[in-house]
Specification:
The protein starts with a strand and ends in a 5-residue tail after the last strand. 36% of the residues lie in helices and 20% in strands. The radius of gyration is 19 Å and the shape is globular. The strands form two sheets. It has a six-stranded parallel beta sheet with strand order 1-4-3-2-5-6, sandwiched between helices. Strands 7-8-9 form a three-stranded antiparallel beta sheet, covered by helices on one side. Helix 6 (117-132) packs across helix 7 (144-156). It is of the alpha/beta class. The site of adenosine monophosphate has 16 residues, from helix 2 and strand 5. Residues 23-24, 30-31, 34, 139-140, 142-143, 166, 168-169, 176-179 line the site of adenosine monophosphate.
């Protein structure tokens, strides 16, 4: 594996397909599974490691976001990465005055809780797509709304690539793997799996035909009683992310909650009557 610290060092072999996995580092199985998928499908696998300042709001965890370049490099290499691209903030943003805003899907849920977050994500991903020029880009469904935002951006801006969206990798107790799980105390870590448990129950109830709002309220109170501060728990159309009150096509439940000082997100598929 090569490490490239600038665009000019990337110097990719373009004789075969290029797979690309954008990340912010602090690798876990979720990241590694994306790298392995790329490795299995593409000639060259490029992983970017860039803690993107523009997607963090004021008071968020940009400065304390976990960083461990050496351990990350070792894990990426073992997962089959060919080139690890670690740009500096100035290489990506120096004298840059362009922002990419994806209308609609960016403005709901995470977009509402974290104003500007998806502009930061879309802008950095657009820049990285231009730099790496991948044939396939791999993203995790753990960040479901992010997947919808990138999907829309690729469509609207005619990026000549295919997106591959991969299932969430979970701990054995169901907690979605996340670099931010490292912030949880031992007590918080013990209750954190309730997030996914509640999502599973909600999904099952809605698929069985229960009233969506009643099922949502019941999950919210159960999570609140367990010590979570629920920021949103929404049942939405899987494409537009608009809330639904009746299940027609495929849907998704999206959840964000605080546990102590840690903010966690998760989501689950809800199959519609015809899906
Ligand atoms: P991040 O480093 O958090 O920006 O994540 C980089 C990529 O890994 C994104 O496409 C995430 O959606 C994906 N990812 C993060 N956690 C998981 C997980 N538990 N399972 C699958 N993909 C994940």
């Amino acid at each position: 594996m090569r490490i490239a610290r600038s665009r000019s060092e990337l110097n990719l072999d373009r004789s075969g397909t290029v797979g690309f996995v954008p990340t912010m580092g602090a690798f876990h199985e979720g990241h590694l599974s994306l790298m392995r998928k790329s490795k299995s499908e593409c000639r060259t696998t490029v992983v970017s490691l860039f803690v993107n300042p523009t997607q963090f709001g004021k008071g968020e965890d940009y400065t304390r976001y976990p960083r461990n370049e050496q351990a990350d490099a070792e894990m990426a290499e073992r997962a089959g990465t060919d080139v690890l691209y670690i740009p500096t903030v100035s290489e990506i943003y120096d004298s840059s005055s362009t922002t990419v805003h994806v209308g609609g899907v960016s403005d709901l849920w995470e977009g509402e809780m974290r104003p500007g977050h998806f502009d930061g994500v879309a802008t950095v991903v657009a820049k990285l797509f231009q730099i790496v020029r991948p044939d396939v880009a791999y993203f995790g469904l753990k960040d479901y709304q992010q997947c919808r935002v990138i999907d829309r951006m690729v469509y609207d801006l005619f990026f000549p690539l295919r997106l591959s969206l991969e299932e969430t990798v979970r701990e054995p107790d169901g907690l979605a793997m996340s670099s931010r799980n490292a912030y949880l105390s031992a007590e918080e870590r013990a209750v954190a799996p309730l997030l996914y448990k509640n999502l599973q129950e909600l999904s099952k109830k809605v698929e069985q035909g229960d009233d969506i709002d009643v099922a949502r309220e019941s999950s919210i109170s159960s999570l609140t009683m367990s010590g979570f501060q629920v920021q949103y728990l929404a049942v939405v159309d899987a494409q537009t992310l608009e809330p639904i009150s009746k299940l027609n096509g495929s849907a998704r439940a999206l959840l964000a909650a605080r546990l102590g000082s840690t903010r966690l997100i998760d989501n689950i598929a809800i199959r519609g009557p015809t899906t």
